[in-house]
TrEMBL record:
Positions of the UniProt region annotated as Disordered: 1-25, 58-136, 294-322
Protein name, entry field: Putative Fe-S-cluster oxidoreductase
Polar residues compositional bias, start-end: 1-12, 104-116, 126-135
Species this protein is from: Haloquadratum walsbyi J07HQW2
Superkingdom of origin organism: Archaea
Regions of compositional bias (Basic and acidic residues) in chain numbering: 58-67, 305-316
Amino acid sequence: MNDTDTTDLNGTEQEETPSLEAELARAKSLSVESLADAIESIGFECTRCGACCTAHHEGDDEQKSEYNDEPDSVNAAGSDTSRDDNLKTDNSVSTVDSGHVDHSSQIADQTQTVDNEGQKEHHDMTTQSASTEPHTATVFPDEIRELQTATDDIGDDPVATGDGDGQASTEWRDVARPMPYGLDDENETGTTFEWALQTNACGDCVFYDETDGIGSCQAHDDRPLICATYPFSVALGGTSQPMGEAVDKAGMVRAHECEGLGRDISREAAEELAATLRTRAIRELNEAISLRDAYEPTGDTDGIVVHDSEGAKRPDGTAIDN
Ligand code: SF4
Ligand code: SF4
């Protein structure tokens, strides 16, 4: 029995969920060199197919079996799933099940007051669906503000709806929307955790642009950490896991659906990606701890309540005072 195991009243051994603090300590101890080794061994080069920035359509999953290995292929989500279709993290707090950000479910457990089954299905980057599901990627409050500022600096502002009154013309809700899990079908009421990148009418990320089948991010330099490190994650509880089960792994690194997997990557690029991946893991765990600690039920509040690391907010990002 290891030190995370415990025994219930029936004498059955059960694994104890590591605390967020324990996982944060593990994240801080991650070696960039080791992560880079893992990324190098898996291999990656982004083909700019756009699959990780756009809505998930019925039939996308079928495309996975039609993998086209041509470098210029735009066959989204076409990574080689045959390598290992059943990889899961060994860590009990990281349930990589159908592609979800899992730290919120742990937060819900730790607040012990949240009955929000939808939080167990926090998807990242894209979601599963029988038809079309909007792109859903976690974005943290600071990242939202950075995207607001960055978007204001773009000459032909792609997303702003503000009135140009001297304040930031890009509003919070131009950039982010409440994470949909825990909301009603119309996304009008409910309690949820964290924010997702805002989507357009097609369900694609508002920052996504495509020309002649080549995708681009209009906020590339300020894109959230989850975007900057896709398709990789680390096998730590409380960190976010992109869509679906991992399709490859090496050491602590997990790789998710992406047609760029398996391609050569330079050592320099692997180290840069590894450093960002480590930063992301630490950031996600710090956010999860702050969210847990800041969580307080808001009582009778009309509409939507979003709990994030700074407290409870309305969909426009303004704070709800208890
Ligand atoms: S990271 Fe992968 S899924 Fe995303 S655009 Fe690049 S190749 Fe496509
Ligand atoms: S912010 Fe950029 S990289 Fe991230 S999902 Fe949107 S378009 Fe893609």
